[in-house]
Amino acid sequence: MDFTSLIAVFLGVVLVNNFVFAQFLGICPFLGVSKNVSMAFGMGCAVTFVMTISGVVTWVIVHLILTPLGSRFLGNPESLYFLKYVIFIMVIASMVQLVEMYLKKFFPSLYTAFGVFLPLITTNCAILGACLLIDMNEVYQSSLVKSAVFAFGGGVGFAMAITIMAGIREHMRFSDVPKALRGAGITLLTACILALAFQGFAGIGK
Amino acid sequence: MSVVLTAALVLFAITLVFAALLGVAKEKLRVHEDPRIGQVNEVLPAANCGGCGFAGCADFAQAVVEERAPCDGCTVGGPDVAAAVARVLGREVVQTFPYRPVIHCRAHTGDKLGVVAYDGVHSCVEANAVGVTQGCTYGCLGFGDCVRACNYDAIHMVDGLPEIDYVKCTGCGACVRACPRNIIESIPFKQEQMLVVACSNKEPGKNVRQVCKVGCIGCKACQRVLAQLFEVRDNLAYINYDNYTGEEDLKAAAGKCPVKSIVYFGKPQPEYAAMLKEEDTAVTQV
For residue B218, what are the domain limits? Predict the structure, then answer.
């Protein structure tokens, strides 16, 4: 495994297959917590943390616990794979709890700023999506390091997307938006144009 | 071994590991929090409007418990919430009044003089920065930043001047902060209707006359009638709301104003409200 392929994985998930703009995962916090840059960046960091840890831990559980146990006791390595979804959700929820406690202790202002959105990371589909994508793709099945880079890149891509969005929305406060589009309307349109712009990365690497 | 049994055991073991991890983390990362903060937070209206000057209801609750804020600091909740907060904390609560915004300007479109054609961004902040949209450099610009700031649909532009709907207004102060000219002020509403000096112009009377038909000219007529309540500073009358009692001689003092700059703000009087209602029904009948 060479270093270049890791960079390719990282850039691929940050720019080309960005979770928000190309795969349309994690839209809820992307629209909900993107009102100011510092909060959006904090949210992005929290998601990156949870996603990286969850990606690694779920890979370890699937390949070092479920597969050997299945093949040893049940004769088929895939016989315990139906537990994946339950375990993925549990891992993510535990990690979110951990992040919540950590933030409450060391960054109370960020903790109050997140409010309900922090526990909602649990149900952020981008994180479960990252775990499942790692699990489905043969490239990541074979390599823990690549999976970790993929999960971390997914988080960085999400953080980048939400921070860009928050920057645009901060500027939008001073623009004369047509009355019918104010609020959710113009936000969705902005997200749409951003997603279109990111489609431009789709040609990279071919 | 059967699939079900293995699955149950595996799941149990993994859950146990994570439970242990969280348990340890909870001990290591414990934060001591005053239980009263949560109790105070529960009786607050949870509007998170920031009208109290804190980041939100939870922040205000913490400040109250730590005695950095008064029990009656919540403008939205008013006396009921103040009493509830005081009960939770076992403190005495003094009589409080709801704070509501009033507008220190009453110049409608026709009253403003020296109005210049303005083609820029329709926002008070922008127009204020340009500074030459109208003669009066103190008065309302009429582009409605306050209307856009309101989360409760309680302020509307009527003929170039915002009008507050005191039935819907919660006193959160968003409009007060939005106004770039600081014309809107939160005052304690000791009665349903409060007298307000509806002008902010500090220029001498002659200059005010040149830019506005209804501005305060600093003639001190009100001060001569009720000196403990009215004070004219910098060519502008102010009302001292600490001494405000709402007695009849107030009306007399207000009536002395030659430009009718001292006006009542507040919920419409009962008879007026009834009249409005009749109008409404009349319209629906048509």
Answer: 99-279
CA B2 to chain centre: 67
Start-to-end CA distance of chain A, whole Å, equals: 20
What is the rounded distance in angstroms from the CA atom of residue B197 to the CA atom of residue B238? Answer: 7
Do B63 and B171 fall within a single domain? no
Instruction: Give yes or no for A82 touching B (CB within 8 A).
Output: yes
Residue pairs spanning A and B at CB distance below 8 A: 59
Chain segment A65-112, per-residue pLDDT in tens:
888 888 888 888 888 888 888 999 999 999 888 888 888 888 887 787
Residues of chain B numbered 84-123 and touching chain A (CB < 8 Å): 121-123
Give yes or no: residues B107 and B62 share one domain: no
A178 inside domain: yes
Residues of A within 8 A of B10 (CB-CB) are: 65-66, 69, 80, 83
CA B43 – CA B61 distance, rounded (Å): 9
Cβ–Cβ contact A74 with B under 8 A: yes
Number of folded domains in chain B? 2
Look up the domain containing A121 and give its range.
29-199
Give, in order, the Cα–Cα distances in Å from B32 to each of A96, A113, B52, B54, B67.
20, 19, 25, 21, 18
Is residue A4 situated within a structural domain?
Answer: no
